[in-house]
Amino acid sequence: MLVLNKKIACLSLLLAFFVLPYDKSLAQNIQEDRISEIIVTGNQRIEKETILSYVRLDEGDLLSDKTMNRALKNLFDTGMFADVNLEKDGTVLKISVKENPIVNQLFFDGNKRMQDEQLIDEVQLKPRVIYTKVKAQKDVERLVNIYQRSGRFAVTIEPKIIEREQNRVDVIYEIDEGPTTYVRKIIFVGNEAFSDSTLQENIMTKEDRWYRFFSTTSTYDPDRMDYDKELLRRFYLSKGYIDVEIESAIAELTPDKEAFFITFTLKEGKRYKVGNVSIKTTLENLNVDELKANFSIESGDWYNADKIETAIQNITDAVGNLGHAFVDVTPETNIQEGTNIVDIVFDIKEGERVFINQININGNVRTRDEVIRREFRVVEGDAFNSAKLRRSKQRIENLDFFSRVDFATKPVDGVPDKTDVEVSVEEKSTGSLTLGVGWSTYDGALIQTGISERNFLGLGQYLGLNVALAQKRTEYDISFTEPYFLDRDLAAGFDLFNMTHDFQDTSSYDQSSIGGALRLSWSYNEELRQSVKYTLREDKISDVDPDASLYIKEQEGKALLSMISNSISYDLRNSTIRPTDGYVLTLSNDLAGLGGNERFLRTDLYAAKYFPLSEEWTLAFKGHAGYIFGFGQDVRINQRYFLGGNDLRGFEQGGATGRDRASQDALGGDWVLTGTAEIIFPLGLPNEFGIRGRLFSDIGATGEPPDTGKYNIDYSSKPRASVGFGISWDSPMGTINVDIAYAVLKEKYDKTEVFRLNFGSGF
To answer: What is the phi/psi pair of residue 57, to 5°?
Structure first.
């Protein structure tokens, strides 16, 4: 048996020996499939070595269908070639390419609404860039998107090329902009508590109207619609509708592509009032009762998400000031079963221990980084605080230097307790040139022009030059303000001015003033602000009428005023432009006599309180009290108080002031008291018109002129009062106030007027 196995083994070796020539032939075939040479043809600009680097094949490499397909794909993926062919000729690999052309010049044809500079920034194809059909198509998509965002949904764009020598092409985008596609109608479905007009006032998108020719809000923008949904949600949450759902926002384009119909579908849910408001915490050494002072939410109020957010920020700041850097404040809402009352519990607990690594700012081409950074309530290395970041974002937006401010956080790789804050801004124009014409009861016809820059040299500084020419007033002034003097939250500035006023109708004299002022102001917190100012001014009383009061004649000539002023203001209004809630108090003092030849002390107290009567009706009470007295001398007439005009409608300027019996010149008083009760209401016009109606009642009294016996003066400290109605218009040329008022309490020597018009300036 062993012998047989040996014979079989020998036979196998013998067979293998005879078969060996065939195995050598196979090995020879495998060797021949390895690349002996690579030949590249068709390339003009691109070097052979560059092409081979993409092919990833060298001489000696094994050539197969798989490696050839991979090489072909790699070459096409570069975007450099319009056509590629790979061919195997024995052991030689032949690569034939046709290069994509290079863009020689780029043109836009037919664009009227968009400038070339606006479009070229959005396309990939530019001179000296490789042309591909894919790039051209993507450019078309991007350009169409830009036009659609500006309201032109009928736009068509076709890319065309003109071949030039040396495999270059000129690219032309032929554009048919089409008509502007406006929003014809905005429909709300499911709203019961608020009318369509009220909801439209609270979103950015508007229906097309003839008076919106300066605005782009009546064009359709899908991103703006998403924001409108959020605005609607915020509006309802601020009015107590906790369960509100904005289910959909659908835009339908008409077949002719000339208009959109937008439908918002929502569920309002019930409106809730606040029940119990409490605080719970696991942190030690926190006085809950003291923390409650940080929010203005009271039982019985309608639920307001804005007040909840403000309370979270205030509590976070207060707890942080007590040494707790990592705090998470979460509001919990618990609806009392079967009622429309919601209890609010602010849960204060230890937050995640995360620090701010870096604050990166992007998009500020003109504005310097430090202008933005100084508005931050946190710095690099601080504990991460979402409330302070929200406040920082709001402060940057309040600069009004940017059309967009976005905040985002980015974790630091490998460092779990640190995060970067990414800030993206988009700058807007901060300079303005104004020119206005108008007429007012007091100044007569006027022309005013000015130029200003709110972000001078990108440093956040204000520089302004204004000129006003009127029948009874001429003013020239230059103002400059540095908002962060010495790198502190200290606004410093100066004013230079030259003014003339015609008081002939009131007091038979003209006044001119030339001088300047230095000023500083700072904030103690978000509500309390103080300012000081030094004024050096030369006043001249001239052109005194021969029949003027003896008191005025005695003051004819020049006087040098050197005055220190101090003002402190506490402002809790919900808006400084058009307040509807809250109050403001301002106390100011002027002390003259540190040099110069005028010596007096003047104190003024201003107050205003606003009550929202409804969504669009506001009740306002305003008051002013002032007192001035001289040190060893009479106060000059131009420093005294005159009652009438804007502070007591229904009376002429100075019309309710003591006056000379013979000349009828108003002589002013040493104190003044005024008060106004006013109801502000809509007139049924869109809010964007800025037109409101007013019903008002004014009351006031003024002090006695000097030496009434000596100058034969009519005077009474009895109160005067008036009632009336008016219209205010925030027009493109400034605020226009028209008032019709009737004096109901007056003295026989007072001078009254029924109609008063003040015309602002600037457009």
So the answer is: -130, 140
91 HSE (CA, 13 A, CB side): 15
Among 78, 74, 100, 104, which residue's Cα sits nearest to residue 86?
A: 74
Angle formed by the axes of helices 222-238 and 305-321, nearest 10°: 80
DSSP calls for 255-311: TTSSEEEEEEEEE-----EEEEEEEEE--SS--HHHHGGG----TTSBP-HHHHHHH
What CA–CA distance (Å, rounded) separates 66 from 56? 13
Nearest-10 Cα torsion for 44, 46, 49, 52: -100
For 401-415, give the secondary structure using H, E and C. Answer: CEEEEEEEEEEECCE
The SS3 call for residue 510 is strand
User: Residue 656: how many CB atoms within 10 A of its CB?
Assistant: 37
Residue 97, helix vs strand vs coil? strand
Measured over the CA atoms of residue 63, residue 67, residue 72 and residue 77, the dihedral's sign is: negative
Angle between helices 65-77 and 48-55 (to 10 degrees): 120
> Using an 8 Å Cβ cutoff, are 362 and 423 in contact?
yes
Q: Residues with Cβ < 8 Å from 108, sequence gap 6 or more?
A: 116, 119, 120, 172, 173, 175
Mean pLDDT by 10 residues, the chain (763 residues): 46 44 42 76 82 83 83 84 84 86 90 84 86 90 84 86 88 88 90 89 84 71 84 92 93 85 94 91 77 79 87 81 76 90 89 85 89 88 81 83 85 85 85 70 76 88 89 90 88 95 90 96 88 96 90 90 96 82 94 92 97 88 96 90 93 91 91 96 79 95 81 89 92 77 94 82 34
State phi, psi for 85 to the nearest 5 degrees.
-135, 130
CB 35 within 8 A of CB 61: yes
Q: If we measure between CA atoms, which residue out of 584, 618, 587, 616 comes closest to residue 602?
A: 587
Question: What sign for the dihedral angle of Cα 17, 21, 24, 29?
Answer: negative
